[in-house]
Amino acid sequence: MVEVAEQVAVEAAAFVAAERESMLDGAGVDVQTKTSRTDVVTAVDVASEKLIRARLSQLRPGEPVLGEEGGGGDGGDGLTWVADPIDGTVNFLYGLPDFAVSVGAQIDGVSVAGAVVEPVSGRRWTATRGGGAWLDGRRLTVSRPDGLDMALVGTGFNYVTERRKRQAAMIAELLGRVRDIRRGGSAALDLCHVAAGWLDGYAEHGLARWDWAAGALLAEEAGAVVALPGQDPELGSDGTLAAAPAIAEPLRRALIDCGMGGI
Pick from 183, 173, 181, 191: which is nearest to 254 by CA? Predict the structure, then answer.
């Protein structure tokens, strides 16, 4: 399954990369909104997901697909493919390079294989449950920060204004307890960065299954402590946390102290 996930993600990433080049050369792209004026979806997102669905139907016929733009179920019973055709659409729209295609396979809602592919850099992040996490053939291991005060932590913000304000207040409080904060704009890549040790921890609210299906598996297989939406009520009903074991519990307690559970 990981080979299929990687193959399909690579093909979709190549398509997205070509569309990005056209945009940079001045071609227009249709943009619509979803939950708010700042929550955007482009025609490239939609076309990328159609490509993913078409290829999966050829390589894994009859197996359901849950996608950000096309829906397709809740990723519950049995095997389901979970796809995010462009994770980091705002970055893509602005010409920033930090976005990715994510394809994961889940059985009974649990990720068992996944690939996150970056269209601009070409980096390929892959993982299988019990088989480790990999970046371009190199096995990944999480970092070992020397205390929470030395931890580099990633995060993201919701598209709803009032919730963004509460998240900003939480991060302002957390900032004095850690080395620094990063906001990259792609949840899938943030989780991969925890897997690689490029971030020591990551916390965010409001992630959907397609945001974390592949990336969270990478973080977990690299040794991170991971709590997915709904698994840790003290982090909020839709809070996600991934962190190196050395700072996982101190970071969790700090996030709770800073108000994450109420956001």
Answer: 173
